[in-house]
Design goal:
10 helices; mainly alpha; 4 strands
């Protein structure tokens, strides 16, 4: 288990977005007593609200993305995270790594904790120092302050850009929705220990003494680094987000 790395799960929520527009039409009918069809002028269709991403290229989408998702939370850290460039590609690449069981640290290095990873020794054994879990309190607080239903709605707004970015790194016919579901499910399957797990020292890093924990993917071990309480909060948020996404009638991908 490497020291001082970022929390993999933050990638799932850095860029969530979208909503569909309901089209309403009034249709004229025939009156049985009339020999001719009554001509009725249809009510005008409501003017749809333009998508903030209409006519915006993937390469030039950062400004629109920031404006759209900046209001998801009032946490100042959220605004700082969004200040980085190439947000859509960064998010897609991060989700892709998590879906493969890998850590997205290469994409989200700016989330690296400032304080070092620490351990404690008890009865001749080494354990994770619970103080190390608090290094991620701010990250988890920002993530869980976002309303999952609103995040799911906004996710659909940015969806075309997400698919475009995913096509750059995926096989033909692959869908970003499927990738996101796989990444989230992978994190939700992470077993969360009830207490601080025992560690075994490697050359310059630590590994879990429990083979079941050490055998988890890099992304899942990163989630464990949040600590039991924080990890469960994130899993609960992800469940709520996916439930909102699946419950939205506009959620079906057009691909």
């Amino acid at each position: 288990m490497s020291k001082g790395k970022i929390a993999a799960v933050v990638a799932i929520v850095v860029l969530v977005v979208l909503a569909g527009i309901l089209w309403i039409r009034d249709r004229a009918g025939e009156e049985a007593s009339q020999p001719m069809v009554a001509e009725v002028t249809p009510a005008p269709e409501p003017t749809p609200t333009p998508s903030p991403f209409s006519g915006i290229s993937l390469a030039g989408s950062d400004v629109a993305v920031r404006e759209t998702v900046s209001g998801l939370t009032t946490a100042p850290e959220w605004v700082r995270w969004l200040a980085h460039d190439d947000l859509v590609r960064r998010f897609v690449a991060s989700v892709n790594l998590v879906a493969k069981g890998r850590s997205p640290r290469s994409q989200l290095g700016f989330l690296r904790p400032r304080t070092p990873f620490r351990v404690v020794e008890r009865d001749g054994a080494v354990y994770v120092d619970p103080a190390s879990w608090h290094r991620y309190d701010t990250v988890v607080s920002v993530v869980t302050s976002i309303d999952p239903a609103r995040a799911a709605t906004l996710y659909r707004e940015i969806h075309p850009l997400l698919d475009e970015a995913y096509r750059e790194i995926s096989q033909p016919g692959a869908r970003f929705d499927d990738l996101l579901a796989k990444a989230v499910q992978h994190l939700l399957e992470t077993p969360i220990p009830e207490s601080s797990p025992e560690l075994v020292e490697k050359v310059v890093t630590w590994r879990y003494a429990d083979p079941a924990l050490e055998g988890l993917s890099d992304a899942q071990r990163q989630l464990l680094r949040l600590g039991p309480e924080n990890a469960r909060k994130v899993q609960d948020w992800l469940r709520a987000f996916m439930h909102a996404l699946e419950s939205d009638p506009s959620a079906a991908s057009s691909n």
